[in-house]
Amino acid sequence: MSLIIPGHGVKLEAVLRQPERKPLRGAAVICHPHPVYGGTMNNRVVFRAGKGAINAGLAALRLNFRGVGASTGEFENGVGEQEDVSAAIDWLQTKFPRLPLVLIGFSFGAWVGLQVADRDPRIVAMVGLGLPLDHYDLDFLTENVKPALYVIGTADEFCPRDKMEQLARRLPPYSDVRWIEGADHFFTNLIEQVSCHWIRSCHERNGVHVSGPKSKVQGPKSQTDFSWPWTLGLGPWTFRSDGADLRGRCRLLLCAAQV
Fold first, then answer.
1. Closest CA to 202 of 25, 58, 21
2. Each residue of 133-142: pLDDT tens digit?
3. Rounded-to-integer distance, Cα 227 and Cα 203, Å
């Protein structure tokens, strides 16, 4: 379904796709790479990420940032684009008020989207593909309190392995970095290896708790509990996030869906 989302002083072109099987298990906002260099919501990696989300039971919302495609406005160096992400989250929450929300970003879309996801309590988990460390500061990820997955190619020209490994050493233990051997920034010829490893259950609880083999983090009260098994070998994580809008119980399985 093609649609126009009201933004902050702009109108944003977007596409919403939903799995045929119901009930929905969640919803995802998917952010595209740099618009100045041709990035759009139809980018191959973004499209395949959306397909993976759908296969995993999520509604997938891909949007064009301001100034891209039919979206009004102009490029704003990541500042206005963060407002676009917030507008997309607003729209998804209104459309699916009882579902947990996930953010997926690729390249520039990861830098923009993960900043919003980090501070917005409605986003319960986040995925970054091809982090552009050579161009942007992503140190904010070291303070992130949500489950996060970062998928990088070992030949990524915009994310040197030494820089990513330095950042990885400072990430919280409930963040995970996974490498795809030989993949460049766009995962050329290796896109099928990019898997979405996301959340596996949610039910009403109180308190924030992130636990894994080596860590436990406490935070503000919450009503959403997620367990998060990674298909690439990381054992199950549990996440409770601010989810006061989630009433009763719901089940979410977003594990090992190929994009």
1. 25
2. 999 999 999 9
3. 10
Tell me the residue length of the chain: 259
Q: What is 2-196's CATH superfamily? A: Alpha/Beta hydrolase fold, catalytic domain (3.40.50.1820)
pLDDT at site 195? 54
| DSSP per-residue codes, 34-99 | -GGGT--TT-HHHHHHHHHHHHTTEEEEEEPPTTSTT--S---TTHHHHHHHHHHHHHHHHHSTTS
Res. 149: pLDDT tops 80: yes
**Kind and range of the H or E run holding 166:** helix 161-168
Does residue 85 register a pLDDT over 60?
yes
